[in-house]
Amino acid sequence: MTAEQQQGLFASIAGRTARDPEEPQRRWIAHCTKADPAFAKGIARAPGLDLRQAGA
Q1: Cα(15)–Cα(17) distance, integer angstroms
Q2: How far apart are CA 40 and CA 28, in angstroms?
Q3: Which of 9, 21, 23, 52 counts the most CB atoms within 10 A of its CB?
Q4: What is the DSSP letter of 56?
Q5: Which SS3 state, helix, strand or coil, does residue 53 take?
Q6: Residues 55, 6: Cα–Cα separation, whole Å
Q7: Is the dihedral of CA 32, 6, 17, 56 positive or negative?
Q8: Where are the domains of the chain?
Q9: Alpha-helical runs (H) found in the chain
């Protein structure tokens, strides 16, 4: 996946989860961090979540 495709994926996910409460977003990012820290970092940046607060 190219960097441009990754950014598109992050933006798409952020758009779909933007209306979700912050706590479930944080939990999901914490789970993603266990599987793929770079992916979780990109996802967290999109909605502006703090990885430290996400438990990552």
Answers
A1: 6
A2: 9
A3: 9
A4: -
A5: coil
A6: 23
A7: positive
A8: 22-56
A9: 3-17, 22-35, 37-45
Q: Cα dist. 2→29, 31, 33, 45 in Å? A: 21, 23, 20, 18
C-beta atoms surrounding 4 within 10 Å: 8
Q: What are the pLDDT digits (tens) for 3-36?
A: 899 988 888 887 787 788 888 888 888 898 999 9
Q: What would the DSSP string read from start to end of 2-13?
A: -HHHHHHHHHHH
pLDDT at 51: 56
3 state DSSP class of 30? helix
